Amino acid sequence: MDFKVVSLSFGTKCSKRCPSLMVAKGEMTSGTVERFLAFAQQASKLGASNVLIIDSPGGHLVEGVNLGHVLRKLRTSVFVGQVVTLGGQPIAVNGSCMSACVYALMGGNKRFVPAGSRVGVHREYLPNSSGSDPMSVLRSTRRFPEVTEMLRSYSKKMGVNPALIDLAEQYGVGSIRILTPEDIRRFRLARIAN
């Protein structure tokens, strides 16, 4: 996952200085949390707001959960979106938060999902440790009740309805359930931003 600080104008002229926000994009891999902690410290020194715009396909489950814990500890607000440059100006647009990213999102002090952004969940899995057959993950049907229970406990601690984990359990590794705005509200995952 890559991190950067971006000043956004939100389509208007900023009177003094446009607000600077933190942006995270990409897959959550081993070391993501440590890199984010170092980045957040630097971003704070640069005057960035304690707001993270996140766009991620997911990645390592443990990194997603641990990033969520860090975001909560830092009281960071999280928006699902991405930053693109249009006419030479960086602007925030819809993004996606899939799989392990959802657990990072849960940690946000305040959580927002724009109506056009996508959030998706599926059952957790542990990849083949030998690495000899990458397709074995897709064929995996093994369940991990202790991990599922940990995720239920984590979601409850973060103020998210643990029934979201039960929904995710219904979707295997080869599929994903895209949450509707109604799902996002019902599970108390985030506010829908228009």
Short description:
The protein is built from seven helices and eleven strands. The chain has 194 residues and is an alpha/beta fold. It has a domain of 135 residues: 2-enoyl-CoA Hydratase, Chain A, domain 1 (Alpha-Beta Complex).
Shape: globular
Q: What is the CATH domain class of the domain at 2-120 and 178-193?
A: Alpha Beta
| CATH architecture call of the domain at 2-120 and 178-193 | Alpha-Beta Complex
List the helices and strands in order: EEHEHEEEEHEEHHHEHE
Assign the CATH superfamily of the domain at 2-120 and 178-193: 2-enoyl-CoA Hydratase, Chain A, domain 1
Helix/strand class? alpha/beta
Low-confidence runs: none
Q: How many β-strand runs?
A: 11
Mean pLDDT: 89
- Measure the end-to-end span: 27 Å
CATH topology of the domain at 2-120 and 178-193: 2-enoyl-CoA Hydratase, Chain A, domain 1
Count of helical stretches? 7
What can be said about the biggest beta sheet? 6 strands, mixed
Radius of gyration: 17 Å
Oligomeric state of shown chains = single chain
Lateral strand order in the biggest sheet: 1-2-3-4-8-11
Percent of residues in helices comes to 25-40%
**Beta-sheet strand percentage?**
15-25%
InterPro entries: ClpP/crotonase-like_dom_sf
Protein name: Peptidase S14
Highlighted features:
2-enoyl-CoA Hydratase, Chain A, domain 1; three-stranded mixed sheet; 11 strands; 194 residues; alpha/beta
Give a description of the structure.
It comes from Labrys okinawensis. InterPro entries: ClpP/crotonase-like_dom_sf. This is Peptidase S14. It is a single chain. With 194 residues, the chain is α/β, with parallel strands linked by helices. The chain has a domain of 135 residues: 2-enoyl-CoA Hydratase, Chain A, domain 1 (Alpha-Beta Complex), CATH 3.90.226. 33% of the residues lie in helices and 24% in strands. The strands form three sheets. The chain has a six-stranded mixed beta sheet. The chain has a three-stranded mixed beta sheet with strand order 7-9-10. Strands 5-6 form a two-stranded antiparallel ribbon. Helix 1 runs parallel beside helix 2 and helix 5 runs antiparallel to helix 6. The longest helix is centred in the N-terminal third of the chain and has 14 residues. The model has no long low-confidence stretch (mean pLDDT 89).
